Amino acid sequence: MPASWTRRQWLALLGAAVGKPAVRRKPAWLEPEIASFLDSATEFPVRRLTAPQGDHQLAVPPCRSIARRGEFLVFSSNRSGSWQLYWLEWRSGRILQLTELANLDPEDYTLVPDDRACLCFDGSRLVRINLRDREIRTVYAIPPDWQRGKGLALSRDGRLLLVVEQGAGRHRLRIVEPKSGRARTWFEWDRPVRCPQLSPNSRQALFRDEAGRVWWLRAGAGSPQQLKLPPGRIGPVYWAPDSQSVVYLH
After folding, report:
1. Phi and psi at residue 61, to the nearest 5°
2. Which end of the chain is more exposed for a tag (fewer CB within 10 A), N or C?
3. Using CA atoms, how far apart are residues 134 and 98, in angstroms rounded to an integer?
4. Is the pLDDT of residue 10 over 90?
5. pLDDT per residue over 129-175, tens digit each?
6. Distance CA 79, CA 198 (A)
7. Is residue 207 over pLDDT 70?
8. 162 — phi, psi (to 5°)?
9. pLDDT for residue 180 is more than 50
């Protein structure tokens, strides 16, 4: 290499070696699809948020799709040919595709408490999506001998996440710490576990079995206890704010 190179030549060589800095592409917002009309049967005013193109779905409770201040909502849709997450801005109606995941679960996803990110499953891995820049990082991966079951529940402070796993005839509830990725098994048995819910104080949980029966589990306790509810179909069950009781539809 010539020893008499000028400073400009050295800088040109360095720029070629490093390459041009990556250019962040602007989000590709979709035009609003909001339409208002009267319901033909009741004549109530209806506001349709998305066009009838593909299927659209909100998160299954207790997961949360709507921002606490009502500024936006996150929904899943297969309008692009595969299930992905989308952001809908409430005032303008604009829509932004958030993900390009290979195997998104369209039901089990949730906003975090400060509404700055969303947690969802892409196959066997739990990922966190930063809503500001749409960056995705893996939070937790289900062990190879297990598969993901149905259900997801985030604590009110966002520090704990309940995940359902199944494998070899066993079913279990796992507690995942989204910040660190650490996980531990809370409870395991030989029946399906569905619809988990953490209590507001994060010390108890509710879940259902394959027959729809509701079970109660306390941190540090052994086996879960079935709630003694009246005969008949039991609808949605929710924790009371004080974590001392539950409310349900019957």
Report:
1. -55, 145
2. N
3. 6
4. no
5. 999 999 999 999 999 999 999 999 999 999 999 999 999 999 999 99
6. 32
7. yes
8. -90, 130
9. yes
Of the candidate CATH numbers 3.40.50.10330, 2.60.40.10, 2.120.10.30, 2.60.40.1510, the domain formed by 144-250 belongs to 2.120.10.30
For 229, other C-beta atoms within 10 Å of its C-beta total: 13
pLDDT for the residue 28:
81
Gap between the Cα atoms of 135 and 59, Å rounded: 21
Tokens in use for 104?
Answer: 């998104």
Place of tokens 């049967």: 41
- What backbone torsions phi and psi does residue 9 show, to the nearest 5 degrees? -65, -40
Tokens of 197: 């819910």
**List of residues 6+ apart from 106 with CB closer than 8 A:** 55, 57, 76, 77, 78, 83
β-strand partners of 80: none
| Tens of pLDDT, residues 185-199 | 999 999 999 999 999
Helix (H, G, I), strand (E, B) or coil at 19: coil
CA separation for the pair 190, 169 (Å, rounded):
6
pLDDT mean across residues, the chain: 89
Enumerate the domain spans of the chain. 27-141, 144-250
